[in-house]
User: Fold these one by one.
Assistant:
Number 1:
Amino acid sequence: AATLGWEPLGGPEFDPVDDEEGIASGFSEFAAMVLLMIMIYAVNWELDFGKYHYWIKQTMTAVGIRYLIETFPKAGPAINPMLGTTWYIFKNGGYPDHLGHYFTYWV
């Protein structure tokens, strides 16, 4: 990227010290992820739509994800523990050492 004058790659990250916007984004992402897990459980294992189950399930999941992205704009579409951790490793060259990262993405 530097050779071509492009912006370097970046992803979801925050500094746990003096970064109120980053911490708010972390809580936003955590809430969105928990609601996403509840939605996926309900749509895939609790509801039965009979013959059209697959099509209705896929549509409801897509609408639910879009709703979460709109409701939690600080989280954005990266409501994904693996993606958040991958960006951290890409940027810092090692696994996260702050518990806030694991609480936000993996708990």
Number 2:
Amino acid sequence: SIFDCDEYVTYSNKVLEVAPGVRTVIVDSSLQCVKGGEFKTALNTDIFLTVWDKVISDGHFLLHDWTVKVDPDAVFFPGRLRTVLEAYSESVNGTYLNNCPMGMHGPLEVFSRN
């Protein structure tokens, strides 16, 4: 889970205690969206951008080589990702690990610091 990462943050539209001593950080969004498109998925671009604005403004990502976006319903093993990341280096323009041939989709997205 994300709690095995070097640092983690959970976001919501209100403060919630998700585990003892772990509270969400507030983002300015209802976190609601419609479903649609070819695959009837959540059309959540606006939510995504609001959360990333908060990630960037908080600046914690600058303390780490990689930042991982993990959906709450995803099964995530940070130790396995650390092994995969050994094969990658950061480019001048940054590195994005694409886990879906259709672009930025899916429960797990990995970005380098740049």
Number 3:
Amino acid sequence: CQGQPVLPVGLSDLPRNYTVNVFCPRCHGLFFPKSTRQANIDGAYFGTTFPHLYLMTHPDMIPAKPAQTYVPRVYGFKVHESSLFYRNHEEGPENQLSIDNSSRQSRRSRDRNRRK
């Protein structure tokens, strides 16, 4: 994420369940820490709300959205928009709704073809 500083986050508020992860405020991704020393810290020390509460408290620390977008590829070929990757990674409820409707329509047409 172009050298963006990250924030620690836990996946659970209960102790001894998960180790700490890091949250990138630019891409909103969760990653494992690079350091083994950091990877051994219990995630409950930071909890699930720390990065979000920190960014709400310090809105000047919120970075701008990245200008470049990630284009998934398999062996150099772009992944088609109808694949499960795009169904699971679309941002916003409008896109999710259109994907749900298109999958319903494709199921209906598939069921009609089976009946014939």
Number 4:
Amino acid sequence: STISSAFLQALPEDIRQEVLNQERQIQESQRAREAAASAAAPGPQGPSEMDPATFLATLPPDLRQEILMTTDESVLQTLPLEVAAEAYAMRERERERAMRHLR
């Protein structure tokens, strides 16, 4: 996997599986594009590394939101500031919504 193992381990099991499936689809698509490109211009190509922030950007919005809402704090701290801020803002909105329902 090109996704940080710490990032994956911080996710709930069902989300982790969804993320791994999404990554697998992305990699298969990327391999197909690379195969087509190497057929046109052969040359050595290795697998590309994908950092967590880039991977998150490739996800459908609902899965991205679920991951940002459930990811461990220690993992959020490793993400770029704008991604972590997005996660914190989502969590704050959810806390506020939950508090309104308690009243």
